[in-house]
Backbone:
């Protein structure tokens, strides 16, 4: 049995395209910010590393279709299509609307085929444990969704197969492929991709004389925080929620902006690097402005969007679309909303750590593998990618879907700036060892200590020691 800690985490969802089968998927409603953003965060849990949020693979915003034919999408050979009678898909939490769509397509395209959807696992860690147990019991898994940081487990312990990008539609955005690679091999095809962002109340910033453009760097953010505190002491200038392992997501993204990864190329931790310590020092200063929220949704976005207690808040791009819709729905009771990519360290550049998931093929039999690959291509169909982005504002992984989303981006111009950041994303750390899955939460714990007053260099030294111990086991 694979042992992975199940505390905290972040991950995303699935999608598809058309040929024959059409499945109506539930629309997203926004009665309150908590409900709206809980939808995106619990399903997307979007940080780099840490895979135990509650990603339920839902939803799409409207009816969408899955299919393969069109532009170079791989289909199984007639021989294999006639031979394979059962195909198994393993997801998490509730059944994915997209997986249902792909199931409908596959079963219509291949009469006699039954696609079994297994979505009882509550999070990505539980999913790995479930697949591991089923494998030991001789049960077959053909297709599975994997959090980016757990891809090495799928590759080295669960038998995930190498996939050729040539099997994908020509419209798939090749910039995202690197996020699904393990040791140079394409183990997963990135499906739902997120990045950290900084949202802000533009009305509060204006009152304090803060130009939002200055929020591009950590120095600018801290300068803005000082002005906000002076202008209105009743508002906490900044809140970077640490729950769902967002703490380590901020740390690694900040270090990455200066070209430093929290993990060395050989898999060992790199947490005592000066740039990592500089990132921790920024987080320490943020903590000095007041208590930082735990859960990004139930606390962070609630305090920011409904209670208006904070001026700036850390979030995932997956929550921004829902947040904008909610604030707009408040009319005069709302406020002018703004969002920026997460700040860089001074002199750095945008290189955010990606959050999200990838689709993997675990089938080893030639024909099962062909059919599993066809299902993966179906779930990455432009129409369903677009419908998913409309519901939960991930980065679109398909160029045809991005074109289809022109109206969506016109409606939400705040999101346009993120469309072209796919090429700047950096793969999430994938920690080795039987206990490597515990590292993201261990790093988040140290970030929390820093934000509560622990010396940043001391905390990173302790994080280095803990991560070394966990990855050596």
Residues:
């Amino acid at each position: 049995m694979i042992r992975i800690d199940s505390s905290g985490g972040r991950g995303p969802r699935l999608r598809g395209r058309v040929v024959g089968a059409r499945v109506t998927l539930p629309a997203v409603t926004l009665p309150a910010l908590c409900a709206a953003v809980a939808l995106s965060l619990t399903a997307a849990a979007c940080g780099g590393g840490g895979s135990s949020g509650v990603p339920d693979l839902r939803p799409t915003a409207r009816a969408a279709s899955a299919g393969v034919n069109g532009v170079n999408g791989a289909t199984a050979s007639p021989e294999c299509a006639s031979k394979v009678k059962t195909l198994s898909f393993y997801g998490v939490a509730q059944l994915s609307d997209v997986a249902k769509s792909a199931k409908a397509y596959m079963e219509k395209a291949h009469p006699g085929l039954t696609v079994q959807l297994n979505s009882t696992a509550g999070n990505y860690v539980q999913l790995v444990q479930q697949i591991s147990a089923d494998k030991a019991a001789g049960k077959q898994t053909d297709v599975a969704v994997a959090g980016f940081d757990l891809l090495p487990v799928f590759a080295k312990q669960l038998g995930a197969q190498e996939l050729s990008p040539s099997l994908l539609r020509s419209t798939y955005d090749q910039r995202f492929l690197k996020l699904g690679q393990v040791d140079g091999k394409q183990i997963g095809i990135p499906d739902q991709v997120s990045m950290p962002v900084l949202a802000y109340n533009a009305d509060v910033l204006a009152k304090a004389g803060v130009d939002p453009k200055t929020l591009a760097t950590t120095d600018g953010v801290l300068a803005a925080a000082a002005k906000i505190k002076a202008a209105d002491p009743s508002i906490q200038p900044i809140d970077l929620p640490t729950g769902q392992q967002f703490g380590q997501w901020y740390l690694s993204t900040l270090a990455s902006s200066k070209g430093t990864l929290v993990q060395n190329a050989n898999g060992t931790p790199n947490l005592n690097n000066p740039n990592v310590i500089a990132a921790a020092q920024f987080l320490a200063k943020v903590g000095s402005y007041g208590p930082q929220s735990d859960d990004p949704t139930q606390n962070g976005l609630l305090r920011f969007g409904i209670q208006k207690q904070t001026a700036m808040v850390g979030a995932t791009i997956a929550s921004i679309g829902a947040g904008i819709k909610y604030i707009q729905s408040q009319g005069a009771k709302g406020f002018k909303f703004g969002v920026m990519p997460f700040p860089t360290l001074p002199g750095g550049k945008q290189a955010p750590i990606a959050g999200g998931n990838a689709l993997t093929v675990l089938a080893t039999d030639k024909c099962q593998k062909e059919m599993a690959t066809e299902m993966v291509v179906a779930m990455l169909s432009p129409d369903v990618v677009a419908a998913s982005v409309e519901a939960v504002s991930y980065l679109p992984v398909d160029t045809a879907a991005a074109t289809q989303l022109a109206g969506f981006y016109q409606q939400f111009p705040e999101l346009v700036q993120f469309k072209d950041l796919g090429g700047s994303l950096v793969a999430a750390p994938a920690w080795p060892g039987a206990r490597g899955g515990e590292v993201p939460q261990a790093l988040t714990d140290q970030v929390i200590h820093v934000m509560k007053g622990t010396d940043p260099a001391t905390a990173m030294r302790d994080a280095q020691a803990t991560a070394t111990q966990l990855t050596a086991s």
Remarks:
- The domain at 196-353+431-471 is CATH 3.40.190.10 (D-Maltodextrin-Binding Protein; domain 2).
- The longest helix spans residues 456-472.
- The first strand starts at residue 22 and ends at 23.
